[in-house]
Amino acid sequence: AATGVCAIILGAGTSPPVRCPRRRPLLAPWQVSLAKCFMRQRLASTVAVADIAVNCRLSVSYFERAFANSVGFSPYAWLLEQRVASAKDLLRIPAIPIVRIALDCGFTDQAHFTNTFSRKVGMTPRAWRNRHSPTKEAQ
After folding, report:
1. How many CB atoms lie within 10 A of CB 116?
2. Which of 60, 113, 50 is nearest to 84 (CA)?
3. What is the DSSP letter of 54?
4. Does residue 39 register a pLDDT over 90?
5. d(CA 95, CA 109)
6. pLDDT at 133 over 90
7. Are 129 and 98 in contact, with CB atoms under 8 Å apart?
8. How many Å separate Cα 55 from the centre of its chain?
9. Full-model pTM
10. Mean pLDDT computed over 7-30
11. Cα–Cα distance for residue pair 23/109, rounded to 1 Å
12. Is 35 within 8 Å of 52 (Cβ atoms)?
């Protein structure tokens, strides 16, 4: 009889317990806005995820997961997208040297900028500039 009671208590012979699906962590709208604003204001400098997380009142690991779930990109990937978008705007101005654009958009040097830009856009910054220069678009 004791074995039967233990089997009932331990759930022997029954279906496995139903597990509730884990909820994916998400940021509140104010946290998404704050994080994006924080990163945009610091495009040209090093941005530490820990600083963003502190401003959002979250731990770094929770912030990274919640940001990715809320925005669709990791914080670093989102920041790179913003840097490339900013670089495209500056590349439209032929008078600005590419090395200056690289530094102004937060890349460590022109080589880092060229590698990242090429990977994201599919062509080098110079090729992109040549294709999108004001004289080419006016034709």
Report:
1. 18
2. 113
3. H
4. yes
5. 19
6. no
7. yes
8. 17
9. 0.79
10. 71
11. 41
12. yes
